[in-house]
Amino acid sequence: MGLSYSNMPILKIWDYFSFSVDSLSERIKLQKITYLLSMFGFSGFEQYKKSYNIYIHGPYSSLVADDAYKISNENITSNKNIQYTSHDEVLLNLIKEIDEKLLTKNMPKYSNYELVADITYFSKKHPSWDSEQIFEELRNKKDYFGDKEYFKKAEQFLKTKDLI
Predict the structure, then answer these.
(1) Structural domain harbouring 116
(2) What ranges in the chain are assigned the alpha helix state H?
(3) How confident is the model over 88-139, as pLDDT tens digits?
(4) Sequence-separated (6 or more) residues with CB below 8 Å from residue 114
(5) Which of 31, 101, 129, 164 is most buried by a 10 A CB count?
(6) pTM of structure
(7) What is the C-alpha to C-alpha distance for residues 54 and 104, in angstroms, rounded to an integer?
(8) How many domains does the chain have?
(9) Per the domain annotation, does 131 fall within a domain?
(10) Is 26 a domain residue?
């Protein structure tokens, strides 16, 4: 059986985001973007949505990792003429906005995706938690997210987009 977007949906976004598995920061970015797209209803990502658990750098899926390494190791390429639904296009643009809106000098670039994914994860897993509880949970797990202003900026971004 050949590879297709239905049995390896990450192919739909691999080239779009120029993903790579060559460094930890690239793998974190891949995991967080895939998580966010799956949680917000990107078409074909349902199997990824169910596969995430929380780990050191936030939501992580071994299924996504397996697919990514398969794409990389076997030099699989995606169809350059991918047709996205209008909803998918909105989500892809939203992901691009994360770096534009949350840019900070003191954090690695993938941290923006990690923080937004973490806030989304805890908001959905614990719907009764308020902002302060989520912030405390993240601060306890990751001292590098102790900047409340950075947290509030990411949380506000998600709220203004009606994502949490």
Answers:
(1) 11-160
(2) 11-14, 24-39, 46-49, 62-73, 86-102, 110-125, 131-141, 148-160
(3) 999 999 999 988 887 665 677 788 899 999 999 999 999 999 999 999 999 9
(4) 28, 32, 57, 58
(5) 31
(6) 0.89
(7) 24
(8) 1
(9) yes
(10) yes
